[in-house]
Design goal:
heterodimer; A: alpha/beta; 8% strand; B: alpha/beta; 5-stranded mixed beta sheet
Chain lengths: 410, 337
């Protein structure tokens, strides 16, 4: 007999929307220091719990505690704070420049600075990142000149990419930063390929792939995990879970899987979740995963639990899809403040020195901006030649492009 | 000079390239131990080892995506997509990534990869083993697109493609793997061992990309063809008695406009033929170029003979395939126009 019960479709919805009280009670936060640090040659099956927990080092008192602490020297911690402050100041100035019409588009990192800044410090020269659009900390912490970044953002005459790419889609081979695509997910499987190549050539360099929570739904993510698992590629596969894919909450991509890290378990890839707003924890986990890759033990999947405080880009307004005060309620705090408090607690830093550093950093960003603007901004001053538009499609320009360039009269 | 099938010639090209350059790697579905479903990679794993020729998971996206990463590292991957009909999951990686990386990174990263795939019909493969998707790639700036029509060219073009600094889509007309096929499916196939273009030099040689070849000189009319249709056009010329000049395009992107213009300016008539569907097909580009560059020499409209705008059928394969009768009729109409 036919059931009289009709089917219904489940469409996930976030707990709260604009006008509601922010609610992160679903985000279970373990105590700092409470998660074990396994040896790097651990069997993925023995650390399945790490895909559901959150590795944290900094506790609420600003102390570094537990088995994942102690990977950085005092000098390195101070440098890490400076990198995050620099990235934040850089973002603020460039966001303003976009509003002033000096460029078409910008994407900021507010709240996510620790992820890329700390990860970069776990890599060695020659390693290669395949980043998305919110990992400029890899460049800042890697010593890439700010002026070059700004030249790219302005698409000016000194733009290292000749005005061909959307602002912030940087590329620097020298700094281990693969050309950002803008098509989501594509670079994740390329990172695996790069790592496979390094292994084929018996090299020592490793790769790091980057993807956001939303883009894990792309087929590229699945392909990357399959290939990384099959060939045990020396790659660290990073998922930055900042809770929001433009206006879509992370539950739409995550579905019923519990966590994004847990997606690695079916592939036999060790999967860890880490407090993405804890510079020390990010570095410790990155170091662990990088060492695994370097020792030819294969891939690691890491989920950074963080929160995108700002808009997705200069083209959306978050108040249209989430409560305005949601970022204040985010239970993992602010990465800059947390590292600052840790250094103060340790007697290595003070509020005065922090204010002074902020001023110095702002000065350096403004100086770089002045330097970059000498070469023009998107709509004024020096710009790449229209001739550059025809160059570099192929190594050697084929006849049809030569004809078109002649026709364009450039 | 040794005689080879097109399969042997393609295998020889990869063998030569792998032997000369340790950075050349070959992989794809069933490509390693077994040597590929068409046997194009047979013996390469045994000769060069499992890290230079290997099987992959069934993921065209993964095959092409990892190849792009390897190329960024500095290798020269030559990968196989088992049938051109299976390439679509990799389309984003090809179009948005492989084709653009040199441009968007201003040359910091490049993508010297070759994506080989059997193309075209004539083997009762139905709609999933018969398609000719070349126009989906010739529309993409940054790619090169090659379609060989014989063993000698297949080897020379494939070596050139592997050595090329940019991504190359290498479409192998599978109906030509074992012998030239002129569309007369009811007749026995001539093997490559009995055809002069089955003579393939040993060792290294290249056929340059971007150069067409005149397969039959003639004065009455120009036929622009590639792959299997070269032999169909030859049969149509023989059967109609029309003194056609048949041009084998060999490389579709970038194309050899000079050879086309010289020929059509001489003959004043042009028929464009391909197996792929008609609408927005590569023939539309050829016809447009001919009228742009040869209009005042033309004595008749440019004709197109192509696959019908339907999915590739199974039982109706020979009703679909643009064989010598249809090509011959178009040639006669063009002569009489």
């Amino acid at each position: 007999m036919a059931s009289d019960k009709r089917l219904s479709l489940h469409v996930p919805e976030p707990e709260v929307r604009p006008g509601d009280q922010p609610d992160f009670s679903e985000v279970k936060i373990p105590k700092a220091g409470s998660v074990d640090r396994p040896p790097v040659d651990v069997d993925a099956r023995d650390i399945r719990d790490l895909a559901y927990s959150i590795i944290r080092v900094l506790n609420r008192q600003g102390e570094a505690v537990g088995p994942w602490s102690g990977t950085l020297t005092d000098e390195e911690l101070a440098e890490g704070l400076r990198h995050m402050m620099l990235l934040r100041a850089f973002d603020a100035r460039m966001l303003m420049a976009q509003r002033q019409g000096k460029t078409s588009f910008y994407m900021q990192h507010m709240g996510e600075e620790a992820v890329s800044c700390a990860f970069r410090k776990a890599l060695a020269p020659g390693d290669m990142n395949f980043p998305t659009y919110r990992q400029a900390g890899l460049l800042i912490a890697g010593g890439y000149p700010m002026v070059e970044m700004m030249n790219q953002i302005y698409s000016n005459e000194a733009d290292p990419l000749k005005g061909r790419q959307l602002p912030i889609m940087y590329s620097s081979k020298e700094h281990g930063f693969f050309s950002i695509s803008g098509n989501l997910g594509t670079q994740f499987v390329q990172a695996v390929g790069w790592a496979m190549a390094s292994a084929i050539k018996n090299d020592t360099r490793i790769a790091a792939g980057w993807i956001g929570d939303g883009s894990t739904a792309e087929s590229d993510f699945h392909a990357a995990l399959v290939f990384a698992s099959t060939y045990r590629a020396p790659v660290v596969l990073n998922i930055v879970n900042n809770q929001w894919a433009i206006s879509t909450f992370q539950g739409i991509a995550r579905g019923g899987s519990g966590t994004f890290a847990a997606r690695g378990l079916g592939f036999g890839i060790p999967a860890l979740r880490v407090d993405g707003n804890d510079y020390l924890a990010v570095h410790a986990v990155a170091k662990w995963a990088v060492e695994r890759a370097r020792r030819n033990l294969g891939p690691t999947l890491v989920e950074y639990v963080t929160y995108r405080v700002g808009a997705h880009s200069t083209s959306d307004d978050p108040s249209a899809y989430r409560p305005k005060t949601e970022s204040d309620a985010w239970p993992l705090g602010d990465p800059v403040i947390r590292l600052k408090n840790h250094l103060i607690k340790r007697g290595l830093w003070s509020d005065e020195r922090h204010k002074q550093a902020e001023a110095e950093i702002l000065d350096s960003v403004i100086a770089a901006q002045k330097e970059a603007e000498k070469h023009g901004t998107l709509h004024s001053g020096g710009r790449p030649s229209p001739r550059d538009m025809f160059e570099g499609v192929y190594e050697t320009m084929p006849p049809h492009l030569r004809r078109q360039r002649q026709k364009a009269g450039v | 000079m040794p005689r080879m099938t097109m399969i042997e010639a393609i295998r020889s090209a990869m063998d030569v390239a792998m032997g000369r350059d340790d950075d050349v790697v070959v992989f794809g579905e069933d490509v390693g131990y077994f040597g590929g479903v068409f046997r194009c990679t047979q013996g390469l794993q045994q000769k060069y080892g499992r890290t230079r020729c290997f099987d992959t998971p069934i993921s065209e996206l993964g095959i092409v995506g990892t190849a792009i990463g390897m190329a960024a590292y500095g290798l020269r991957p030559c990968v196989e997509v088992q049938f051109a009909d299976y390439v679509y999951p990799a389309y984003d990686q090809i179009v948005s990534e492989a084709a653009r990386i040199r441009y968007r990174s201003n040359g910091q990263f490049t993508c010297p990869i070759v994506i080989r795939m059997p193309t075209g019909g004539g083997i009762f493969g139905g709609q999933t083993h018969s398609q000719s998707p070349e126009a989906l790639f010739t529309h993409v700036s940054g790619l090169k697109v090659v379609v060989p029509s014989n063993p000698r060219d297949a080897k020379g073009l494939l070596i050139a493609a592997i050595e090329d600094p940019d991504p190359v889509i290498f479409l192998e007309p599978k109906r030509l793997y074992n012998g030239p096929f002129d569309g007369h499916h009811e007749r026995p196939v001539t093997p490559w061992s009995k055809h002069e273009l089955g003579e393939v030099p040993d060792g290294h040689f290249t056929v340059p990309l971007g150069k067409a070849e005149i397969r039959r000189e003639g004065t009455a009319l120009t036929v622009l063809a590639y792959g299997t249709m070269v032999y169909v056009a030859e049969a149509a010329a023989a059967e109609t008695g029309i003194d056609a000049e048949i041009i084998d395009m060999r490389t579709l992107l970038p194309l050899d406009l000079d050879t086309i213009v010289a020929s059509v300016s001489k003959t004043g008539r042009c028929v464009v033929v391909h197996e792929a569907t008609l609408t927005s097909g590569y023939g539309a580009e050829l016809a447009a170029l001919v009228q742009e560059h040869c209009f005042y020499h033309l004595e008749a409209p440019v004709a197109r003979v192509a696959g019908w705008d339907t999915p590739y059928p199974h039982a109706q394969e020979w009703d679909y395939f643009p064989g010598p009768t249809r090509v011959g009729e178009a040639m006669i109409e063009t002569m009489e126009a």
